[in-house]
Amino acid sequence: MKTMMKLTVFFLLFALLAWPTHIAQAKGSDEGPFFGESVSISNGETFEGDLVVFGGSVTIEENGVVQGSVIVIGGSLFSDGEVRGDVVVIGGAVRLSENAHITGNLSTIGAPVSRAEGARVDGSILDNPQRPSLLAPETSAPAISGPGAILSGVFGLFGEVFNLFLQSVGFGLLAALLVLFLPQQTRRVGEAIPAQPAWAGAMGLGSLLLFITALVALALFSVLIVTLPLTLPLMLGIAVIFASATVLGWVGLGTEIGLRLETAFKTTFPLPLSAGLGTFLLNLVSSGFGLIPVLGWIVPALLTLIALGAVFLTRFGTRPLGVKTQQPPLESVHVEMTN
């Protein structure tokens, strides 16, 4: 874990040091695209080519010209100059001053448009355009009944069950492979689940809420404060850690189920086989509950939260649940009085 943290910090620092240099070089050669930086076209300046900006804003002053299209994602466009092409803005705002001129189309998604008197758009203005439907218009066809409909329903249900079976087999194989490399960690996670299921579920729910809050905060940070080069690696890292914890918890719970099946049938299997069999049955049964309409998601969700909480309670299986640091016993000290 310490080595992984050091490598993560190293790559983040390297990205922070290397990324601004790359942006400055791109800005000097009018290439782009630009990430996490605002771009300004000064009075009388001409930008050659298409201008693409992620997580930043674009400002075009009076008599400034862009010889191409302008695409802004996660930022705003403030123009008092000329864009000789199309303009696309997603997740920001568009403000066209009186001297602004767009020779092509203006398309926005989640970006309000403010046009001053005198601003010109030669093409069309598409506000939150929707993809045209490729489906044929609905017709009132008569309902199909009879043996054909019955067979269609039977084969549809069989297909769902078969897909569920294959998915469970895949999870079982993954569990067997994971236990080969992390036998102690999976055992500790599995043992923590029946020991404290309520506490594990609460910990899992708290971890899920913390994960969602962190992603939303980093996403808002990227849009409002323009720090995409920093927040994007952090978001990916948090997502990888959360997904790894979920898989480890699910396999740990499956391993515990497999070992209890050994006890029930008074037999012994290798640990990877027990983990694979238990995870297969766990996924099969929980996903089967998921096929129940409306309330079927409750059982898989509760099991996932409990398994996830057990991972964090045991610190990814690195220590058993409830182990405290033991103090060495105090040795009695004999003091001899000497004359």
Major sheet attributes: 6 strands, parallel
Spans of at least 5 consecutive residues whose pLDDT stays below 50 are 1-30, 131-146, 148-154, 324-339
Number of helices: 7
**Overall geometric form:** elongated
- What is the helical fraction, as a range of percent? 40-55%
**Strand percentage:** 5-15%
Q: How many extended strands? A: 16
The strand line-up of the biggest sheet is 1-4-7-10-13-16
Give the key terms.
single chain; 339 residues; alpha/beta; six-stranded parallel sheet; five-stranded parallel sheet; elongated; disordered N terminus; disordered C terminus
List the helices and strands and how they pair.
Blueprint: H1 2-28, E1 34-35, E2 39-41, E3 46-48, E4 51-54, E5 58-60, E6 65-67, E7 70-73, E8 77-79, E9 82-83, E10 87-90, E11 94-96, E12 101-102, E13 106-109, E14 113-115, E15 120-121, E16 125-127, H2 147-181, H3 183-195, H4 197-225, H5 228-265, H6 271-290, H7 298-313
Parallel strand pairs: 1-4, 2-5, 3-6, 4-7, 5-8, 6-9, 7-10, 8-11, 9-12, 10-13, 11-14, 12-15, 13-16
